[in-house]
């Protein structure tokens, strides 16, 4: 994989070479993406959550295997910075196929009229109901007809992800789940984003290592558990929205 593919022609001469260890990891991820495309073709899709890991995967897919389709779940409660990144990605890589899925308007309207706009703070049950409507139902539509999906999950991210493998059967959704960055550290992800000069969510520079919906995400202190700012009022063991069981 050449760094030149990621840089504007005028900045190629000043670019520093990529660290060989990082280059080897990037090549490995590129191979994973290419072999996934060879195996699954159009039955493969990338769930782009516009977080740091997905910023890296977006760049690698766009430059190395742009045939892999991508989708974003817009819950209707995403931070402005996330939506800004979505438009940046679209304009930088017009060659990619990126589809946005929204919640079912009628179901959401019924829920909000019954429970209020911020019901998720009242109980875990209501929080899961909100995630179900805003994320899980649109995810089902996004995965329809697919045989494998790519995610930006990493083992290190939380206690709920420490058994993650590169490729595993996703029984909940009935297809294979591929996590090409499963064995990456957070530091390596950032080293790659900076080396390849990829666009990323501006909230990452404001203390948000992990970003979800605006009302359910807050900044954390440096060195804190990266996912401790997600659903911070719940126990660490329950801090998943159900997209990844
Ligand atoms: S993260 Fe919060 S706002 Fe977003 S879908 Fe889940 S409960 Fe609803």
From TrEMBL:
Domain spans labelled Phosphoadenosine phosphosulphate reductase: 45-219
Q: Which InterPro entries match?
A: APS_reductase (IPR011798), PAPS/APS_Rdtase (IPR004511), PAPS_reduct_dom (IPR002500), Rossmann-like_a/b/a_fold (IPR014729)
GO molecular function terms listed in the Swiss-Prot or TrEMBL record: 4 iron, 4 sulfur cluster binding; adenylyl-sulfate reductase (thioredoxin) activity; metal ion binding; phosphoadenylyl-sulfate reductase (thioredoxin) activity
Q: Where is the active site?
A: 241 (nucleophile)
Q: Could you state one GO cellular component term attached to this entry?
A: cytoplasm
Give the co-factor note.
Answer: Binds 1 [4Fe-4S] cluster per subunit.
Q: Which residues bind [4Fe-4S] cluster?
A: 130-131, 213, 216
Any Gene Ontology biological process: hydrogen sulfide biosynthetic process
Cofactors: [4Fe-4S] cluster
The UniProt keywords, alphabetically, are: Cytoplasm, Iron, Iron-sulfur, Metal-binding, Oxidoreductase
Q: Where in the cell is it found?
A: Cytoplasm
Which family does this protein fall into?
Belongs to the PAPS reductase family. CysH subfamily.
List the NCBIfam families.
Answer: APS_reductase (TIGR02055), cysH (TIGR00434), PRK02090.1 (NF002537)
Question: Could you identify this protein by its name?
Answer: Adenosine 5'-phosphosulfate reductase
Species, as recorded? Marinospirillum celere
């Amino acid at each position: 994989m050449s760094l030149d593919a990621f840089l504007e022609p005028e900045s190629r001469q000043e670019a520093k070479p990529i660290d060989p260890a990082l280059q080897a990891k990037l090549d490995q991820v590129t191979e994973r993406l290419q072999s996934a495309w060879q195996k699954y073709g159009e039955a493969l899709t990338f769930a782009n959550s516009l977080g740091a890991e997905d910023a890296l995967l977006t760049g690698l897919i766009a430059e190395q295997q742009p045939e892999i389709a991508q989708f974003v779940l817009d819950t209707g409660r995403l931070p402005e910075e996330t939506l800004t990144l979505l438009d940046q990605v679209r304009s930088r890589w017009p060659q990619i196929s990126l589809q946005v899925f929204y919640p079912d308007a009628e179901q959401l309207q019924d829920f909000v009229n019954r429970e209020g706009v911020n019901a998720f703070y009242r109980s875990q049950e209501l929080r899961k109901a909100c995630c179900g409507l805003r994320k899980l139902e649109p995810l089902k539509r996004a995965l329809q007809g697919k045989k494998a999906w790519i995610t930006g999950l990493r083992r290190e991210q939380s206690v709920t992800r420490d058994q993650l493998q590169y490729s595993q059967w996703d029984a909940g959704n009935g297809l294979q789940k591929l996590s090409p960055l499963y064995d990456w550290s957070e530091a390596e992800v950032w080293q790659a984003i900076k080396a390849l000069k990829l666009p990323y969510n501006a909230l990452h520079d404001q203390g948000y290592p992990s970003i979800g919906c605006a009302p359910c995400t807050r900044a954390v202190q440096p060195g804190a558990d990266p996912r401790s700012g997600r659903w911070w009022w719940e126990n660490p063991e329950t801090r998943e929205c159900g997209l990844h069981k």
